[in-house]
Specification:
Length: 305
């Protein structure tokens, strides 16, 4: 089938993204019920799906203790991205709570779609264009608020919108560009305290699409203990690469983890949804990976501060 349809992987990836609301949580749940396989293509595929469902979680240990408010009641929304919207809603809830603590007037998701980045990588440019136009339309209808983003891939994609012909009104592309903010940079104005089960070693994985304040945030929140370089190795996720070259994707993931050399009890944190799933799927026994928001204690976000 692949031989007669060169774009098969792209088409399949498009269906996977379009049906994310149903497919992702269902497949992650089913994979979690099946026996574990340590090797082979089936084992790797099931591991990837389980990782989307959360995998073995870790107890959050970063508690906000002070917010240096900067929002001044400015309208703000969270761009959740596909992963948070469909399988990790806790990230969006924590992001909204952090923004509220910083003094922003946070509204619910206005109806954003996929950022479109993963569709472009699969060659689905028409579908990508439709997603971009929808996102701009929903932002416009919401009153052109600040858009806080906590996925590096989504952030890079959204920043690129201003260079596309998306039916912008005069001056609107500039407003869009100025209103796209990485959540990690905003959260740098929050002071955290480490409580509970504090990991012995905290490793920050910098996504290929950019970290935008993640490392600085984590180092400040952990008293300088968070490790990691400004730009680490690629995790190997690569979107549609998971379909077209799963073996290569897994090989790059192993090389990435070898670079960090994690030991049981260590935690790997990142700010890219794809990186979370990839690292979580391939992490050695006893090593847990997650989004940096996973380390933030949700209970402590209820205030008062």
């Amino acid at each position: 089938m692949k031989a007669t349809s060169p774009g098969f992987e792209g088409w399949l990836w498009g269906r996977w993204v379009a049906g994310a609301g149903v497919l992702w949580p269902v497949m992650a749940t089913v994979a979690g019920l099946l026996p574990s396989y340590k090797s082979g293509a089936l084992g790797a595929a099931l591991g990837d799906l389980r990782a989307m469902g959360g995998g073995p979680g870790f107890e959050p240990w970063l508690c906000p203790v002070r917010f240096n408010a900067c929002g001044n009641d400015r309208k703000a929304v969270v761009f959740a991205g596909c992963a948070a919207r469909h399988v990790s809603p806790g990230w969006s809830a924590k992001a909204a709570a952090l923004l509220t603590g910083l003094g922003y007037a946070v509204s619910g998701d206005p109806g954003f779609a996929c950022c479109g980045k993963t569709l472009a990588g699969a060659g689905l440019l028409e579908a990508r264009g439709a997603m971009m136009r929808r996102n701009v339309s929903e932002w416009r209808a919401a009153g052109r608020p600040l858009v806080a983003v906590f996925c590096a891939t989504c952030l890079e994609a959204l920043r690129g919108y201003a260079n596309e012909d998306l039916g912008w009104e005069p001056g609107e592309a500039r407003l869009w560009s100025e209103g796209i903010e990485p959540l990690a940079r905003l959260a740098s104005r929050v002071e955290f305290a480490e409580t509970g089960q504090v990991p012995g070693r905290i490793i920050h994985h910098a996504p290929c699409h950019g970290a935008d304040g993640e490392r600085e945030l984590l180092r400040a929140a952990t008293g300088g203990r968070a490790e990691g370089t400004g730009q680490g190795p690629c995790c190997g996720f690569g979107g549609a690469l998971k379909l077209s070259a799963p073996g290569l994707s897994a090989q790059v993931a192993r090389q990435c983890l070898d670079f960090y050399g994690p030991r049981p009890g260590d935690r790997i944190l990142t700010g890219c949804s794809g990186c979370v799933f990839q690292l979580r799927s391939h992490a050695p026994e006893g090593v847990l990976a997650g989004h940096w928001l996973d380390a933030v204690d949700a209970a402590s976000l209820r205030g008062p501060w």
